[in-house]
Amino acid sequence: MNAVTLGPLAFATDRLAAILGIMVFVSVGSWLARRHDGRLGLWTTAAVVVGLIAARAFHVLVHIDSFMDEPWRVFYVWQGGFSWIGGAIGVALTLVFLAREALRALPLAAVSLASGAFVWFMLTTLWQAAEGPPPPRFALANLDGTQLVALDERNGRPAVVNLWATWCPPCRREMPLLAETALARQDVDFIFANQGEGPVKIRTYLEGESLEIENVLLDPMRSLARHYGAPGLPATLFLRPDGTVATTHFGEISRDALNAAIARTLPTEKDDD
Predict the structure, then answer these.
(1) Where are the domains of the chain?
(2) What are the angstrom distances between the C-alpha of 122 and each of 14, 131, 203, 239?
(3) pTM of the prediction?
(4) Homologous superfamily of 139-272 in CATH?
């Protein structure tokens, strides 16, 4: 699972890498400010603010069709959706603009930026290189209890496996999107593995929300969450046709992130060859 647990807190690895990179950038800038130019500390702080805004704006522009349908999602920053390219451009331009009258300090700002970028890049590379677990070798019952479904028998089709519970607010918020996408997509299977709840409670929730969802599985012992190392709910696994993990998403997922992750599970022409 692409998440790291620190005490009671859980972070998606891509977000944790970005947070640590920003912390190093600001810390190095503050350290250099105390020894060389006091303005550098303010510059790095301003660059972080502008960089975050630019990263979000660039992401929105790239996925403008999705945001045109739901413009209020521009402010749903907790779902993720930041472009590192837009952020890097915003940070670099801010530092150049602020240091335009103090060009001697510009190399110091570049050192701060390079330090943060190095930490972000190394952590991202290491976490992406880590192999995910193999497909689980156990089966789960469907909602009616009439069939056992084994996730290691995918029949050559990619799958989206959502780990959820009715008591989980972000699970409930993202469920309509997942249900809608599951009905619309014919090229990928959707599996909704409820964690720790019984069929009566699940049916009551689905009927109360008027959700038509197939492939609801019962996981009363939270076996999938343990197998994939999910630190919390919701967690969404994107499996390739061979059952291996293409990518994962921890927390509430957005429409653009969902579509992008599904694309990573689909076989390419090279794979077909």
Answers:
(1) 3-129, 139-272
(2) 11, 16, 45, 25
(3) 0.77
(4) Glutaredoxin (3.40.30.10)
